[in-house]
Write a structure and sequence with these properties.
203 residues; alpha/beta; Rossmann fold; five-stranded parallel beta sheet; 5 strands; 57% helix; HAD_sf; HAD-like_sf
């Protein structure tokens, strides 16, 4: 089987509400408030952050835009961006699943919405080339999920027809977009659930 992993929230930790509670304790008192602030900051990965995800603007520009839009000081916005690499911790249960799937002979790939500075960090911090045959980062191809273009780019880069790919992602909109293009897409909640869902596909 050809299995394509999303990164944030699947392979690497990404939980904006708790992340912002740690980085901005003076602004975020609890997870509920963290979720509200995350909506303002990341705009559901559209707007300013979406442009950063797609590599259309750099880190300095997204800091300026978020500060101008929200009124938060640029230094505080920059603090959040600087803290993202530490947030992207490898999730041990998913790492175990990756090892298990590779040992079973499955082909593994990745398709991630990831600004280029964080893509660089992940490549330097983890043996991505050992885990995956190939991958696509949004910041490098100037397109992001759930848009059609990035799925087409991934399919071409992997040399696979969409229906030959099992895609794991934690965002329903990305799953819906992948399904519409013929991918076998599975909503990721936990590595244990993903293992069960993939086993069902293999039957």
């Amino acid at each position: 089987m050809n299995i394509v992993f999303d990164f944030g929230g699947v392979v690497f930790r990404w939980h904006p509400a708790s992340f912002l509670a740690r980085v901005w304790p003076h602004r975020v008192a609890d997870l509920e408030q963290g979720a509200t602030v995350a909506e303002q900051f990341f705009e559901n990965y559209g707007g300013d952050w979406g442009a950063f995800d797609q590599g259309l603007i750099d880190a300095d520009t997204v800091i300026q835009r978020i500060a101008a839009r929200t009124g938060w000081p640029e230094a505080e916005v920059a603090q959040v961006l600087a803290a993202v690499p530490d947030e992207l911790q490898l999730q041990s249960d998913t790492a175990a699943l990756i090892t298990e799937l590779k040992q079973a002979g499955h082909r593994l790939f990745y398709l991630s919405n990831m600004p280029e500075p964080y893509a660089d960090h992940l490549e330097q911090a983890h043996p991505l080339r050992e885990w995956f045959e190939a991958g696509v980062f949004s910041g490098r191809v100037k397109h992001s999920k759930p848009r059609t273009e990035i799925f087409k780019i991934a399919s071409e880069r992997f040399g696979l027809a969409p229906e030959a790919c099992a895609f794991l992602d934690d965002h329903p909109a990305n799953i819906e977009a992948a399904h519409a293009l013929g991918w076998q897409a599975l909503l990721f909640t936990t590595a244990a659930q993903a293992r069960q869902d993939l086993s069902a596909l293999m039957r």
